[in-house]
Amino acid sequence: MPDNPKIPQHVAFIMDGNGRWAKQKGRARTAGHKEGVQRVREIVRGAYDLGIRAVTFFAFSTENWSRPKSEVAILMRYLDNFLSGEIDQLHKNNVRFSVIGRGEPLPKYLQAKIKKAQSKTKDNTGLRFVLALNYGGRQEIVDGARRFAQDVLDGKCNLPSLDEEKFSRYLYVDDIADPDLLIRTSNEMRISNFLLWQLSYCEFYFTPICWPDFGITELKNAISEYQKRKRRFGGLDAA
After folding, report:
1. Active-site residue among 16, 18, 134, 180?
2. 57, 132, 194, 199 — which has fewest CB within 10 A?
3. What is the CATH code of the structural domain delimited by 10-135+178-227?
4. Which of 4, 49, 64, 180 is catalytic?
5. Rounded distance, CA 157 to CA 110, Å?
6. What are the residue ranges spanned by the domains of the chain?
């Protein structure tokens, strides 16, 4: 990695290509999802050592319910197994775990495990690990607008008080900085309704590598590319 102290503090991931990876190897799509879970483990375990302080993974979108029921059921089971097998270790490593997205119609048993995992790790001060589950970016903005409108109706605030900073506090996670870097695998070049509000000044990195093959080495490559860029946030370069 270049000798450059500029490290993205928050990295978001769109984990694409699990099914494609499995097809290339003559295996079932679910084998790709299973291998993809291993990459999440690897990234979570290594990100903090690289200087990253938060990671967000797009695990399941509101549109993914349209997939075959058998595939959705297996994805839910993998998520369940991940929570059962990893939360104690995450807690031991001072990782704070959060989920963003609507609870319904996630299975009740999974909602209960998510709530327990978030409660157990809520006071941890190390890596922030966010999982976007049953998540949609437009949905998040609509839900935030509804919460603000309800506060206005309840007399807790007034309409003229709303600005960008205040509205951000009505989104699903209000205590974490916006992503500096978005990584999408499998050569897809779109954001697919992910973190629409938060990605306004994010740097994008697209790679042809499928998610099951994306590990710490590939993450270092993405950071190296990020370090070469100049982020002006709408302004001009310093003279």
Report:
1. 16
2. 199
3. 3.40.1180.10
4. 64
5. 34
6. 10-135+178-227
d(CA 16, CA 172) in angstroms, rounded, equals: 23
221 carries an active-site annotation: no
DSSP for the chain reads: --S-----SEEEEE---HHHHHHHTT--HHHHHHHHHHHHHHHHHHHGGGT--EEEEEEEEGGGGGS-HHHHHHHHHHHHHHHHHHHHHHHHTT-EEEEES--TTS-HHHHHHHHHHHHHHTT--S-EEEEEEEE-HHHHHHHHHHHHHHHHHTTSS-GGG--HHHHHTTSS--SSPPPSEEEE-TT----TTSSTTTTTT-EEEE-SS-GGG--HHHHHHHHHHHHTS---TTS----
Is 151 an annotated catalytic residue? no
Kindly report the pTM of this predicted structure. 0.93
Query: Could you report the per-residue pLDDT of 164-203, keeping only the tens digit for each?
Result: 999 999 999 989 999 999 999 999 999 999 999 999 999 9
